[in-house]
Fold each of these.
Amino acid sequence: MTDLLLLPGDGIGPEVTAQARRVAEAIAPDLSIAEAPFGGISFDQLGSPLTDETLAAAKAAKAVLMGAVGGPQWKDAPRDKRPEAGLLGLRTGMGVFANLRPAICFQPLADASSLKRELVEGLDLMIVRELTGGVYFGQPRFIEDLPGGGRRAVDTQVYTTMEIERIARVAFELARGRRNKVHSAEKSNVMETGLLWREVVTDLHKREYADVELEHILADNAAMQIVKNPKQFDVMVTDNLFGDILSDAAAQLTGSLGMLPSAALGAPGTPGLYEPIHGSAPDIAGRGIANPLAAILSFEMALRWSLNRADLADKLFAAVNRALEAGARTPDLGGKLTTIQMGDAVLAEL
Ligand code: NAD
Ligand code: IPM
Ligand code: MN
């Protein structure tokens, strides 16, 4: 059985996963590691961004580590064959509905953020993003021609009680092991899904999690508060689209989008999907300068959440911190190290 399936993907995906692989081989030499084609490169070679074989291999592994997918090369591919469609298919195929996106400001990077040091120093915010529902998947969705000219595009935002309750449960459980505070972000002031979201979260809180502090916040205000005073937050639970946007904003608090890992989890006992939250970064792909830390820290999350090796995860986290303390910086963090040199720096600390 494969312990760790790597899906390097496109753009900087292969560059950053190669460093995560080196780290994995060094810290856990007993892990069995395999690779499979995924994303645009899989579409080019095999006609689909997510083949049945790759999905089956992902479901059979203990953990899956994905690099990044997409890029301008595939902008004219049929919509259901685009790399991003493959990623959505992988998430639903694996049933990983709970996306944990931790925005942690490493102490040595407190000056690397575009925000003032005092605002981000010590930041430890966990965004819990619903990952397999909402407007990303709702039907109907289409673009149609209008008889009088012009076109009409439709996406559908949809959530059920079950979907909201299970993601809220993840947030409350996580909060209990942290600072015991959950912010639930939606747009209950304008959206029906937001209204149901608020009702279901309130209800679950009353029934089972009254010991956890709960605050409802409108998603637009949440975006503002994330840049105004991010340290007020502990766990923030939100839907698929708001979670996508708010987590990119939160990433910048940590110094760079290249720092933020994620874990996507499903039912207990099923494999998790681990991915940096950044994309394939076509503007720097192939130049060997991408920051591999989001990928390396995604592997750290895999050790913790799927591979049952929290001891090694702690060790790896500390090694990353020490590498940063020693001054290791890729260009996105204001430094000069290449992707490989950043991998070297983490390996040296291990
Ligand atoms: P992006 O995240 O790829 O890049 C945004 C900016 O951040 C760019 O300037 C890029 O150079 C920089 N950046 C990102 N990761 C970095 C890293 N590790 N080190 C240094 N700098 C980094 O977002 P985009 O440009 O909007 O999207 C590019 C493509 O990636 C699109 O096709 C998009 O759909 C796809 N995408 C994929 C994923 C994923 O696979 N999980 C996530 C986001 C976007
Ligand atoms: C992310 C990405 C993806 C998303 C895209 C590439 C499908 O932006 O993982 O944050 O929107 O979920
Ligand atoms: Mn995103």
Amino acid sequence: MAANKLIITAAICGAEVTKEQNPNVPYTVEEIVREAKSAVDAGAAIVHLHVRQDDGTPTQSHERFQECTEAILKACPNVILIPSTGGAVGMTPDERLDSTNTTPIPEMATLDCGTCNFGDDIFDNSMPTMRAFGQRMIERHIKPEYECFEMGHLDTILNMARKGQVPGNPMQFNFVLGVPGCTPATVANLCWLVNGIPAGSTWTVTGVGRNAVPMAAAGIAMGGNVRVGFEDNLYLSKGVLAKSNGELVDKVVRLAKELGREIATSDEAREILSLDKR
Ligand code: KMH
Ligand code: ZN
């Protein structure tokens, strides 16, 4: 029975973190493959993908996504890839959507559910932008992972789903808690969000920075799924930089074992998330 298994997503790269903060943050295709493989070998069923130019500059270019996707799938043939359509703050909507122009079309992609503060920046997700992203995903049969950084993002996206502007049930949510300026990472906030999702939905929790492990523990205990990785947190424990994404995934695997949750394979994750096997 796959239903109760824990899906671990590894957000291996992100767009904002740098090698200056942790030298193991991947930029090149080879480094991205190395990090994806370390995460998958440790137990991740999904890799949430941002890509960079070799100098570390974030890019949403479909050519770079194509190159990285093919290289990751060579090393990890069955992994589910969730390319970002969030990109980096300041990118245009068209630029951001280019990550979905790979061949084959990705089975999933993120869809960010509203504008919010993002540290000192503003992460702009206006209603027209979200409608355009929803339309693209409906047309191309891409299952969105709905990224909610703020409590109000949930209501926004549920309204859009009711109006048929974004793909509807079964919906997959990722509650990203603890981004500076956004909803704090507390168990109470997570419970409020989880209580608000439609029956039949699935959810993941991501705790940012020092919230990564406490939120992972909450997600495991509450029957949800967990995302970890360099995009969200660079440390294995206080003051100790993680050597790889695999180390962060391994920590979640150990927690899950202690709490009695088995780890889902990528195919089991496809079943849980109602994805077609490709
Ligand atoms: N880089 C952040 C501004 C996503 O991947 O969809 C947004 C982000 C969300 O990472
Ligand atoms: Zn992301």
